[in-house]
Amino acid sequence: MSDNLTHLQQLEAESIHILREVVAEFNNPVMLYSIGKDSAVMLHLARKAFYPAPPPFPLLHVDTTWKFREMIQFRDRMAAECNLDLIVHVNEEGVNRGVSPFTHGSALYTDVMKTEGLKQALDRYKFDAAFGGARRDEEKSRAKERIFSFRSANHRWDPKSQRPELWNLYNTRIKPGESIRVFPISNWTELDVWQYIHLEQIPIVPLYYAAVRPVVERDGMLIMVDDDRLELQPGEKVEYKSVRFRTLGCYPLTAAVESEADTLPRIIQEMLLTRTSERQGRMIDHDQAGSMEKKKQEGYF
Amino acid sequence: MAHQSDLIESDILAYLKSQEEKTLLRFITCGSVDDGKSTLIGRLLWDSKMVFEDQLAALEVDSKKVGTQGGAIDYALLLDGLQAEREQGITIDVAYRFFSTDKRKFIVADTPGHEQYTRNMVTGASTAQVAVILVDARKGLLTQTRRHSFLVSLVGIRNVVLAINKMDLIDFDQKQFDAIQRDYEKFAAPLGFASITAIPLSALNGDNMIEASANTPWYSGPTLMGYLENVPVAGDSRGEPFRLPVQWVNRPHLDFRGFCGTIASGTVRPGDEILVASSGRTSRVARIVTMQGDLPEATAGQAVTLTLKDEIDVSRGDMLTIPDAPPLHTRHPEAHLVWMHDEPLQPGQLYLVKTASAVTPGRVTAVQYVVDVNTLEQKQEPTLGLNGIGVVRLELDRPVSFDPYRNNRDTGSFILIDRYTNATVAAGMVITAPVDPDAVQVTEFTPEVVVCEDAAPVRISLSAASVSASGASVVDLSSEGCAIEFEISPSFIEHLGKGNRVLFRLKDLGQLHAVALLAFQQRLSFEFDRTAEGISILVFRRGIKPVENSYADTGTSI
Ligand SMILES: Nc1nc2c(ncn2[C@@H]2O[C@H](COP(=O)(O)OP(=O)(O)OP(=O)(O)O)[C@@H](O)[C@H]2O)c(=O)[nH]1
Ligand SMILES: [Mg+2]
Q1: What is the pLDDT of residue B438?
Q2: Hey, which residues 51-90 in chain B have their CB within 8 Å of chain A?
Q3: What do you get for the CA distance between the two ends of chain B, in Å?
Q4: The last residue of a domain, from among B286, B321, B356
Q5: What are the boundaries of the region Disordered (chain A) (predicted)?
């Protein structure tokens, strides 16, 4: 706590402290890498925290098989450039049952391909700590979560009995089978993340920048036609528009916004002038009130 | 998000530049149940235009469904994000929210008022620089107002706002406002706040939140936002003695050994001499390593990697410090303890004590006293129950480096963890460390009394011969009846210069003058302690590695 540092320097130091604490105290940590801007910042912070060593843990991507193609290319490039092990996990059971956002609805699809997939991967590799790039300013229940967030052996979060978390003294004690989810950028805002990407010149997936892309309008949202699995419904037609994404996920569930912002400063400018939150483009949040809390209790990030 | 600045549209790069220079203020809201803490933050977010359209739409729906304002906007619902909170209309756990104005960035922790959730309030307070303590103008001070105020002062928050809320329900009555302010100032006098700023508010309607209210023409102080934007951000510890708790040792290959950690206070540059507090060994800083090139200097708050010129033994749990102002290194800290668990403290039972970087088994040996949060009086009680606050003595299995919490929040704090359940059961703040009883080799020394006339002081001569043992020796003056004076031989000073320490046992404060004079004239340091037997003063020369004592640092058996 010091006023000689800028607010971004303070946030950076806090995050690096958290990353190091995990590496010092846990046997088998992993970083959940979702390929988005928050993951990009988290990975960059990890590289700084352990320099000149590479971050001493693997990256884990839970692949729903519906990610944008550009995300997958970017993921593989970053893992190679940063000299990190990349574990890609797919819930094969879900794939075998043909679970897709179109046929099973976004709620079940997310539960099977993301939440179940994540729990499978954590169990298989016996990770005792998992870094996630969630931020408290994203959503009301995230605003309530600890930086070191305890999970039972069944990966459940109990929001009513979180451990007190004082100063920067994190309780890292767990029993076999239990784990901790750690959120190093809890206290960053969307603006902080963009500003930091700008200042530190952190590479991000090109989908964040505006470009002319094929989209269809569905339920008032612009969905990008990323491959031929997107079946057009009656009356829908593919249009070419200059669009970009405020947040990245599975392409059928992530809405694009019309935009001309093709540089970082212009993206930030647009973000500052907008009247809606970044999660608006995420369909999973709209299913029901308190849905994020429920998903998190069940093991979602 | 409608940030006010026109710069966003006209010159985004200039705007981004201006953002880099903003200061960051962390604050909390606290106080008793239903005093309006969540509403106050919700209103601040609203008024500083931090609520997005989609969130607003959700808020309108929620307010109708579970709101406490009969369908009108219930700002608390912007904060109370857990299902259980919305159903009960209360806050259970702390919520962290973020907003900014043209002047500052803010991180605010909205804490629960219910006594049951005090631990969550302490969680929020531990990282805050300012506290907004709410009072319901109809009710005045309540037990929780006092408990939270005491906790706020304990965690080292120096500037507080006394937010007298719900003024709309008492017709903005100035008399009532003044009476509450007077009550509070009286209660809080012993808490030692640097400033208490009372503001008449209606969090619900926005009076004196951002703009001065027409309903309180008698009030000329700042609005809440005005206060928050201008209160000095405390905590610049660049000038304090250097402290780096070592968090992790980075060894990517044989030629690199970097010591990683967050600088708790002070400044460091390559070439600086540093001391490892646990071993007394010294070295010099070789480099301050970062991915973007070596740094010429690093200061408090930065997370750094240092390399040293010599191959000395340093590991996680050690503290790197400047040699001439080392921290306490002790097994027996005395500390404020806030108990946060349903099961009361078990004195004598082993807990894990987690400090800035070390985890050490330890036990509470004695509860010195418990504080009554209503009267701030000290009571004798054998233990601490849920939400109890007291002063305790600890015994750690091995010595740990600390500073008094009032000097350094990062190196003076610790938590206690239950070994069986892994629950965090208490928060601790080090007050001091009395002289380690087992670190003192008692060589009884009977002072040579030169004269003892009636009113004249007793002259006591001190020489190396009288305190020949190495380590610490005791000069017992507790049986001397009258005032004392020292006759000091150069050998005695030389003895201290070698890192030896001398413990003076005094009968009363009247004898302190002679010891203080000795320290002043000879440029020595001393530590003061009040014990059951009387007063003890440990005299030593700062900056010199203490001579090892005969006791082993291996800790007591478990
Ligand atoms: N009339 C009036 N009502 C208020 C004011 N501030 C808050 N309230 C109401 O007081 C009730 C309690 O407000 P909250 O903000 O939930 O109180 P709190 O202090 O956060 O409560 P806990 O967190 O559960 O301790 C709600 O019904 C609010 O709408 C005010 O200034 N005037
Ligand atoms: Mg509340």
Answers
A1: 47
A2: 52-55, 58, 61-62, 78-79, 81-84, 86
A3: 57
A4: B321
A5: 279-301
